[in-house]
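Thread: Modeling a multi-component assembly for a lab meeting

Hi all, long-time lurker, first post. My supervisor asked me to bring a structural picture of a complex we are working on to next week's group meeting, and I have zero experience with this. I have the sequence lines for every component (256 residues in total). Could someone generate the structure of the whole assembly? Inputs are pasted exactly as I received them:
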Amino acid sequence: AGPGGADTQSNGGPTGAVPGPGGGRVALVTGANRGIGRVIAQRLAADGFRVAGTHRSGDVPAGVLGVRADVTDVEQVDAAYKAVEAELGPVEVLVANAGVTRDTLIMRMSEEDWDTVLETNLTGTFHVVKRAARGMVRARSGRIVLISSVVGQLGSAGQVNYATSKAGLVGMARSLARELGGRGITANVVAPGFIETDMTADLDEKTVAGYQAQIPLGRMGTSDDVAAAVTFLAGPGGAYVSGAVIPVDGGLGMGH
Ligand code: NDP
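Re: Modeling a multi-component assembly
Sure thing. I ran the full set together rather than chain by chain. Output:
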């Protein structure tokens, strides 16, 4: 893609010959090239949504329309939406999933560590939500799902930047739920716990064992565990759920 460009790349075309719970509605997932976002996009497509996914690098899965976008760049986000609208129609379900970590203790955390995480996780989400709201308000319907984290409520040593950004998403979703509810739009947060992806792949065995000891279910989660909650919120069962924070953490964050 050129600067601000949104090359579309259709990997086999949208699925959904037999409409599932998605009923052919258009869903956009950010960060759909790998990890949790990739599986969310696949699950939505399997449920009968017509799915587009943003990617900075790599490819989106088969059956998903790929649009290149860095969520920190408002022009790239706008171009991505234009490409999706032209190919599939207005976005009816937004899953804001793209996120990064730059973990280190507060005394060592640089301005750049802070800025990168806040600009991606919080400001990037603002960009995609704001652009989605336009079409949803016009349609008087929509579903917004923000992927936060258990650490937004629980806190996490070494993740002051990340936990702050993820806590911010709760305020964002609840404000959206109040502001846009009258237009038939829901806004919810899914708060995953410790999920096996690239993001957690570098953790040493001792840290992993330490986490697992605190998880009532005694195991790490999978991207499928997270996708199940997202597809619920996007589907018919989520119609009357708004402003909720749904934990998918094996019980790790209970009580928050
Ligand atoms: P990964 O690191 O596996 O994937 C992150 C995704 O976000 C990639 O597709 C990446 O694109 C994309 N991304 C990052 N920065 C940008 C950007 N500026 N613009 C566009 N896309 C971007 O992470 P996970 O799949 O594990 O995490 C997905 C979400 O779930 C994140 O928001 C994360 O915070 C959250 N989460 C994850 C948990 C876990 O244990 N794994 C726990 C709780 C929450 P690219 O490939 O180009 O880098």
